[in-house]
Amino acid sequence: YFLLFFSSRSGAKFIAPLGCLVSRQKHTLPDLAYDYGALEPHINAEIMQLHHSKHHATYVNNLNVTEDKYKEALAKGDVTTQVSLQPALKFNGGGHINHTIFWTNLSPNGGGEPKGELMEAIKRDFGSFANFKEKLTAVSVGVQGSGWGWLGYNKEQGRLQIAACANQDPLQGTTGLIPLLGIDVWEHAYYLQYKNVRPDYLKAIWNVINWENVSSRYATSKK
């Protein structure tokens, strides 16, 4: 925080920390554009309800708590505490960012294949849609433990790229790629329905991918 001063005959006087002039809005759990049961039979209602109202909500709550502690540490100039809060900020902030994208990447009217510029880019960078689908599925299946499979846009190189992130590491903040499509492979995303057979979940999720949303993200990322 920067301190704001004004000068007078008696010298400079303290007014207020500049940070106090800006009130931080709390992060909130985003609403879904569809009902919890709308993605059945591919992802059942119980999973969606727990995933959204419990898991994502926990990331949001913990992110707000962490940011409040960080704000206090900043005000005190307590660098040690700022550094110690980084893992919680990354985990909960990433969880909030990732899930906010994930819900919009899914739709009860999803599935099939993308059209237009996104499809052209997929063919250019992966050879075919089938090859892209196979590669993203393989990367997602191969995530050790918990994490995400991503289709991202490499703005510097002007091309699409597939990547995996561990835990809740956010794609752009850790790789620089702009997130277009994220596939959550934490067990809480599928275990109640698919048990430990992650490949079955990954086969099913392609039926509810919202290509309009992914295409819109691609168009925005190129600007």
Automatic annotation (TrEMBL):
SUPFAM superfamilies assigned to the protein according to its UniProt record, in alphabetical order: Fe,Mn superoxide dismutase (SOD), C-terminal domain, Fe,Mn superoxide dismutase (SOD), N-terminal domain
Sorted alphabetically, the keyword list is:
Manganese, Metal-binding, Mitochondrion, Nitration, Oxidoreductase
Instruction: Identify the residues that bind Mn(2+).
Output: 51, 99, 184, 188
Q: Which GO terms describe its molecular function?
A: manganese ion binding; superoxide dismutase activity
- EC number(s) on file: 1.15.1.1
Q: Could you tell me where this protein is found in the cell?
A: Mitochondrion matrix
Which PROSITE patterns does this entry report, sorted A to Z?
SOD_MN
The record's annotation in Pfam families points to:
Sod_Fe_C, Sod_Fe_N
Name the needed cofactors.
Mn(2+)
Tell me if Lipid biosynthesis is a UniProt keyword of this record: no
Question: What quaternary structure, including any partners, is listed in this protein's UniProt entry?
Answer: Homotetramer.
UniProt cross-references to PANTHER family, sorted A to Z: SUPEROXIDE DISMUTASE 2, SUPEROXIDE DISMUTASE [MN], MITOCHONDRIAL
The identity of this protein, by name, is: Superoxide dismutase
Recorded source organism is Balaeniceps rex (Shoebill)
